[in-house]
Amino acid sequence: MVGGEQPLPEYGACLLGSVNVAKMVKNPFSEDAYFDWELFKETVKVFTRMLDNVVEINGLPLEEQREEIQNKRRHGMGILGIGSMFSLLGIKYGSEKSLELAEEIAKTLAVCGYEEGVELAKEKGPAPILEPQGNRNKWVESEYLKKIWEINPKLKEEAISNGCRFTHHSSIAPTGTISLSINNNASNGIEPTFAHHYYRNVIKEGKKTKEQVDVWSYEMLLYKEMFGTRQIPESFSTADEVSIDQHVKIQSVAQKWVDSSISKTVNVPTDIDFEDFKNVYINGYENGLKGLTTFRFNPDVFTGVLVREDDLDSTIYVFETEDGSVFKVKGSDMIEYDGEEHNAANLFDGIKEGTYGRY
């Protein structure tokens, strides 16, 4: 089993958790705004212990899965909200300052995590696979961990003596659902904010098509609460404003400190030509990325879960009725059909994909 952000061995399980770095910003939207490093470090250490406890109550259905997770006790701690965090600090996503901060956050998470992992090994014992000294010595000399020991040389000696509570600690996942549902729509994973106002298509019981729901970004909601306006400051970034090179660079600096893997999506224009699209992946390969995903709004296929208002407004959908009549509407138009009101794009998708009326 392999996940994009957590490569796994046979019967491996994907135990993930993310720290909302937007919550670490103090005095947002001001000249005195800063990232609270001490709060971040303390959160990482407490969260490391929490994820270790989850291993004990993993609830996995197969014995082989339970043996695998108990043997290595691996988990994947990541971050979310970095795009929102940059906006709160007045930093443009993809700028040199953002690259420096993104790398420092990933590095701090990694070092603090392994410091706590070795401490946990002293208290509760290491991951069983690290009990044999031979295995432990090989693990300690891994290329990734050498970077951790360079920052904290004493930790290497303690790891050789005591082992570590887990074999892997970090993984940056997409975090789309948790960013929206429990973090007030902070930007997901290591991504820029998708848009400060957009629509999310959700399945609602009893509805014949997906329902379009208005969504505002975390920073936009906070900005309105503090200043009473939704006028977007210049320092705010969105995914469509970030260049392909900036997307790639953010991932390349962060992934140095990720011992599993990392999820990153590059938003590309609907009308991108093949050569430019190909170069996205060539750019990623040349920068040594572990993996790369692209998102292109394509109304000819399906609308998708997240949709920007301007994409819907600029897309024309053609409907043909049973009597042969043809009419054209914008994707954002609302249509009365079959006793319900539907968003035109979602109605078109439902009929074309054969999902109409199945929800």
Range of helix content: 40-55%
Q: Cα distance, first to last residue?
A: 30 Å
- Class inferred from helices and paired strands: alpha+beta
Major β-sheet profile: 3 strands, antiparallel
CATH architecture descriptor:
Alpha-Beta Barrel
In spatial order, strands of the major sheet run: 8-7-11
Integer-rounded radius of gyration: 23 Å
Order of helices and strands: EEEEEHHEHHHHHHEEHHEHEEHEEEEH
Q: Would you count the extended β strands for me? A: 15
- Poorly predicted ranges: none
Number of domains: 1
Overall pLDDT level: 92
Beta-strand percentage range: 15-25%
Give the number of helices: 13
Task: Explain what the structure shows.
With 359 residues, the protein is an alpha+beta fold. It has a single domain, classed as Anaerobic Ribonucleotide-triphosphate Reductase Large Chain, CATH 3.20.70. The protein is built from 13 helices and 15 strands. It has helices spanning 37-56, 63-72, 82-89, 96-124, 133-140, 143-151, 153-162, 176-181, 218-227, 244-254, 274-286, 309-313, 344-353, and strands spanning 2-3, 6-7, 16-20, 25-26, 34-35, 76-80, 197-202, 211-216, 265-268, 293-296, 306-308, 316-320, 326-330, 334-337, 340-343. It has a three-stranded antiparallel β-sheet with strand order 8-7-11. The chain has a two-stranded antiparallel ribbon with strand order 1-2. A two-stranded parallel sheet has the order 3-6.
